[in-house]
Queue: 2 jobs
Job 1
Amino acid sequence: MFTNLLLDDLIFTVSFTKFAETHFLKKFRKKHKGKRWEITEKSICDDLARIANNLQKTQQVDQLYHSENLWVFKYDFRVAQTNESPKSSGNRCV
């Protein structure tokens, strides 16, 4: 849930930490070979970059922290070509 709604024209920067790369993304790439993970990773970045436009009113994203120029979100996602919903899949990123 968002305590402060974002302006529609904001574009956010999305990045993965080195820790996430070595511990989590590596496992996702191995488990979901080929285009499935590539599509999912691009979708995560695109969705979070445009979070103000369409996601802030859904249950897929929760605001964890906000300061003047820093926002931290928890985003539930599903891997492409799977039949799970984002919430029930248990896949999330901060």
Note: Residues 42 and 48 are 10 Å apart (CA to CA).
Job 2
Amino acid sequence: MKTRKNILPSFITVIIFSFVLYAVMIFLQPRLPHLTFMITSHDSWIEKAATEPLYRFLWFLGDMSEVVFHKSILGSLGLIVGSLIGYRLSKTRSKWQGFPIGDGMFPWIFISSLIGLMLSVYLFGANLSGGWMPTFVPFVSVPATVVLIYGGGWKNSIIGGVLGSLFTFPISAFILESFLIPLDLPPLIGNVLGMAFGAIIVLELLNASPWMEKKDIEEEKQDDIFEETDSREDYSSNKWFFRRLLADFTVANFFGNEIAGAGLFIGSMLSWALNPTLISYGTLNFPAVILSQLLAVSIGIFIYYDQWKESGFYPTFVPGVSVAPAVALFFNGSMESILVGAILGAVAAPPLANFIINKLPVHWHPLIGNTLSMGVCTTVITLILKYVSILG
């Protein structure tokens, strides 16, 4: 606790802010307008995206923010604008650049992820005729890992995008339909297992491919543009805590930048304010999602603060994009599910992810450890809450 005293004010501030924001959102939600531009409801969005090109494109945009359970066009646009601003500031070495976006590989990560998402949406989008499907999974998984392991450039970006779309969606969809729906478990489990197993298959294939060569990634990280943060980060600063909290909202996108996180947050909040039925799958549980995420990430950063200082990174983002919002949505935004999912997720998911990552083969990416932790912790915590509710 002594080492955390410097960030205690920011931690307490975030916890108080989270509950106040949740209360305000719950109060305002019934009084908000329901402005619609083409999309009248989330269900109509799915239905039209299955057959109509324009709505398929809108679904494609929404998929960019689905990893954080927002599924919002404005949230996705905010993420893109924020990430581009962060990238531009980093190129000019501005003091406002924040954490290095995309670990110095942002352009190729973004291009490869877009290729994977585009192929997933347009190859498998017709499956939306049967209801929601995880078309977003390549955008936050295999394509970026290929770039981070093998380097940038069009060849690697295209290979990562194509293989990512061909493997992750089918695996995720199969797990969803064959196991999660019959067993009544959160779809998130299928999403992250599809990412993990898809990444394992693709990275094994590429590792055995004679035409794929690992490059010196450190040389590709544009050292003339990006600076390492470990030597200049003031981990005892309350400002660092707030920045880290925002940045963790975009680590799953492989951006890890607070400006991108702010763009995502602002865009999603604006989307909710304009029509609360067109965000977070039309469940009206966006306030619960936001509360669960802010609690999970802030608690995780506070608990594992020493690990952050020692290594410069720790997977505290994991519960914020998986366990906490998945459990909150699964139990219809109940306060019990919000608190249990956030607290247990924050305590268990980061160290489990870190443990798995340390056991992975050298040619596998940490994504695999992160996503496996997401799947395991979400399953266990969901079953605990279901068991308790049965007893109750």
Note: The chain has a mean pLDDT of 94.
